[in-house]
């Protein structure tokens, strides 16, 4: 676990984390909030630095990660839980309106762990509850996908769609090319540029390396 903590800090220093948070706020305010009601109970799975859950507007916020450092980054109104994504005993059945997972699935050990995670998410979701996934798309990243030592599972939008359908999720939206690969990419580098980027889907088709998939229980 100490190595995981070290990796987080090695990859993003303090100034980079500040920029990331600004980008996430813009992403939440100008895009993701459209799919999340203000009265929803939202679970951020693999929350990391908690940029999403701290910035999204909802009634109840839960952050789950295997790294204890999550408690340091979660805002005061966020319930931080240390747990594996495939075994969330503290989350009650049918209690969550939206599960959000960003930069998580590519870190799972194998397909079995992914399917176990999708099963656990389905257990936690209410009827008609949603899962929103942001994930690098191997189809557009064959040359860079393995540049990160903790990337283990390669997924395309079609492969992830198949996994969701296997567990009877209803696909609401698929954007194969949405965000750039990382915040270290050329675009976007500020909240203002992020807002512009989100309004211009043509840019997604040029710079997008991550997929967005929204599905419903």
CATH topology-level fold name: Rossmann fold
Return residue spans where pLDDT drops below 50 for at least 5 consecutive residues: none
Helical percentage: 25-40%
* CATH top level label: Alpha Beta
What can you see in these coordinates?
This protein has 217 residues and is of the alpha/beta class. The protein is built from eight helices and seven strands; from the N terminus they run ααβαβαββαβαβααβ. It has a seven-stranded mixed beta sheet. β1 (41-45), α3 and β2 (60-65) form a beta-alpha-beta unit. α2 runs parallel beside α7. The radius of gyration is 16 Å and the shape is globular. The protein starts with a helix and ends with a strand. The model has no long low-confidence stretch (mean pLDDT 91).
Annotate the secondary structure layout.
Blueprint: H1 2-11, H2 14-30, E1 41-45, H3 51-55, E2 60-65, H4 70-73, E3 78-82, E4 96-102, H5 111-124, E5 125-136, H6 157-166, E6 170-175, H7 191-198, H8 201-207, E7 210-216
Briefly, what is this?
It contains 8 helices and 7 strands. It is an alpha/beta fold and 217 residues long.
């Amino acid at each position: 676990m100490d190595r995981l903590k070290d990796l987080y800090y090695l990859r993003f220093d303090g100034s980079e984390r500040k920029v990331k948070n600004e980008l996430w706020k813009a992403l939440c305010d100008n895009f993701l909030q459209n799919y999340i009601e203000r009265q929803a109970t939202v679970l951020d799975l693999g929350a990391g630095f908690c940029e999403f859950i701290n910035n999204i507007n909802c009634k109840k916020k839960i952050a789950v990660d295997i790294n204890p450092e999550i408690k340091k980054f979660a805002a005061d109104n966020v319930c931080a839980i240390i747990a594996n994504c495939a075994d969330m005993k503290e989350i009650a059945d049918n209690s969550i309106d939206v599960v959000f997972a960003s930069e998580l699935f590519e870190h799972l050990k194998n397909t079995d762990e992914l399917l176990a995670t999708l099963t656990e998410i389905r257990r936690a979701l209410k009827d008609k509850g949603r899962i929103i996934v942001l994930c690098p798309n191997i189809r557009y990243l064959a040359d860079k996908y393995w540049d990160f030592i903790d990337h283990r599972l390669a997924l395309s939008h079609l492969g992830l769609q198949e996994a969701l359908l296997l567990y009877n999720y209803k696909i609401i939206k698929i954007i194969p090319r949405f965000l750039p690969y990382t915040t270290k990419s050329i675009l976007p580098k500020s909240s203002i540029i992020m807002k512009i980027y989100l309004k211009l889907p043509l840019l997604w088709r040029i710079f997008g390396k991550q997929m967005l998939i929204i599905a419903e229980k």
